[in-house]
Amino acid sequence: LRKALALAPNDRQIEFDLGVMELRAGDGAAALKIFEPLARAEPRNPDILRQFGEAAMVMGDSEKLIAAANRIQECSPDTSDGLRLACAARMVDENWREVIDLATQWSNKFPREVGGWKALSTALYELRRYDEARAAFANVMRLEPEVPANNVINDLLTRYVRDSDVAISHFNQSIQSEVNSAEAAAALALLGTHVGQFADAERMALRAIELNPDDVRGY
Predict the structure, then answer these.
(1) For residue range 147-195, what is the model confidence (pLDDT) as tens digits?
(2) Scanning 6, 22, 70, 116, which has the fewest C-beta atoms within 10 Å of its C-beta?
(3) Residues 16/38, Cβ–Cβ less than 8 Å
(4) Residue ranges of the alpha helices (H) in the chain?
């Protein structure tokens, strides 16, 4: 694609394809360098704006994410892309209250898209609204019941208690007894990382892998 672009430097389709490949290869900076001028040249092209936003997301550039989100909202209001990118921008800034507002709009308008529920649950969790976070995440479990990573998060939300001192006490009590379930060991490992007891968390993670090497939660 780079060779093709050198032969046809004004071909926007080749530029677009190259940007997509750079993004898939993990080079957000190279992708952003391609998509930002493309977005300026075609400010109402939703495909370009979407990729511009994806590249900005990889780079953690909330200002450019918001720019992409706003333009998509104007030209493609019937899709969730604008809300998704706006959520991502506010998550980069750790503005959890705005994430809740945006994710609520997203999940209300597109209730079968798991991303809105995940964003809502994350923001509620960060604001220590754990019961609400778990309720929001129940929709993730309903939509993606077979995704192992979702099970780990659900384990944590199920086990988590409001008071951090109680959480630490709960963790310490639990690891004193023999843990014979890979699922329980993985959940305890995640709780251990949350309360900052990383050595014990590592031990629990290794125990989960020992009990069930095929369960990705331990890893």
Answers:
(1) 767 776 777 777 664 555 666 776 777 777 788 888 788 888 888 887 7
(2) 6
(3) yes
(4) 2-7, 12-24, 28-41, 46-59, 62-75, 81-92, 96-109, 114-126, 130-143, 148-159, 164-176, 182-194, 198-211
